[in-house]
Amino acid sequence: MLRTDTKILLVEADQRSRDKLGTVLDKGQFIFVAVGRKSEILSAVSKGNPRLVIVGSTDRRDGNPISLCRELRECDPELPIIIVNADGTTENAVAALRAGVTDYFLRPLTRDQFLASVGRLLTDQMRKRSADPKRRAPVMPHTPLVGGSATIRAIRRYLVRVAATDITVLITGETGTGKDRVAQLIHRHSSRRKRPFVSINCAAVPDSLLESELFGFEKGAFTGADSRFAGKLILAEGGTVLLDEIGEMSLGAQAKILRVIEDKEVTGLRSSTSRQLDVRFITATNQDLESAVADGRFRKDLYYRLNAARIELPSLADNRADIGALIDYYLNELRAKYDRESVGISPAARDHLTAREWPGNVRQLKNTLETAIATCATGEITEADLQPCLGRRDRPPAKGSPCADDRRELLRTLSASRWNKTEAAKRLNCSRMTIYRKMAKYGIETDAEGSGPLRD
Q: How many Cβ atoms from other residues are within 10 Å of residue 351's Cβ?
């Protein structure tokens, strides 16, 4: 339940649109303040007052909404920002991504989806603020490496030793094995734990956005760059940067990352000066980088630079001894999340979960349990409660090129969803912003209404 002192900053220059948004944000559940001029918006954010900012239209004298979002992100790197726009083109969504927007909605709003996003972002933000009122760095979630097998125990011991150094770490393993969790644990056990942990999904950042997103840019560097942006690497100053899915980077992008890792300095677009960078780099991939190097798809010099210390995570198929411990851990976590403390699991359902192959690994197991505990009609999860999720997702990984298969799957899902990004995100078990990022990465464009492709 949201607290009654929750404050949302509503930016909407048009009075009629402001009234509509105000109607959606029922004051019985939320406290919101409508503001107009940029000066008062930035002032409120700099003082740390709002828990969330919703940006609709802006005063013409203050620039466009994307420009405002960029300035808000500069004021507070962790503040949730929702943009509500009438322009549904991929180009506009990419511009919002560049500006650091957390979620993106088109008019007319779908009330339930919009309120669900608002509630989720506010809950996450309040949890962070209560854990760290000063918010000098993102609050690291408690993410233990679950399992008592010899393999997991050995990884835990090595992880602690590696965390005590500043060495570059390469984490490998199949999709869903917990590479992001291990990176967070390394950060938590390191001397940098009080500084930011910034995760960058390399597969979700198109080459055209890499430099501006990671290294920053000066005002006027490109169309829409109405103000300066420091870049995600600078925002991680003093902390740890996870370059996730590093194997998906193009050769050109790899060269730029190698230079930053070696020189420990960044130069933003159109900037005449370099900035020193004090961060630790951790990288993660589900690809065989040795084969990628041999095939010329991954730079040998970058591979050797990243592979200073290596942690290889086992698949669930190779580590079946820990499935029972994972079931217990996630059941406890999900009971609290859904306020279903009395829900148990039948012996038959537990045996069914333990016997499965789990091609999606730990992530798939958790998603299955989450669906079951959220939808089971009784006080016990049965085999019948598991089937809706398992029937939909329990299939082996696709053959061939990961990128080509991913693009085909995205197009198929968008078409099946009638190009509804929210529905496609649900089917692919990801966020709408991930859909937009992948569309930009794979060159999938839509018409102005977002109802179909301009080209394929």
A: 11
* Interatomic CA distance for residues 334 and 251, integer angstroms: 41
Distance, in Å, from the CA atom of 380 to the CA atom of 375, rounded to the nearest integer, reads: 11
Share of the chain above pLDDT 90, in %: 12
Beta bridge partners of 229: 217
> Residue 357, Cα to own-chain centre: how many angstroms?
27
Find the helix packing angle between 65-75 and 38-46, rounded to 10°.
20
Q: What is the rounded average pLDDT of the residues 433-438?
A: 75
Q: Is the pLDDT of residue 449 over 70?
A: no
- In angstroms, the CA 450 to CA 448 distance is 5
**What's the token pair of residue 336?**
């609290």
Assign 178 to helix, strand or coil: coil
Nearest alpha carbon to residue 254 among 287, 217, 221, 227 = 287
Cα–Cα distance, 363 to 456 (Å, whole number)? 31
Predicted confidence (pLDDT) at residue 3 exceeds the cutoff of 80: no
Give the pTM.
Answer: 0.57
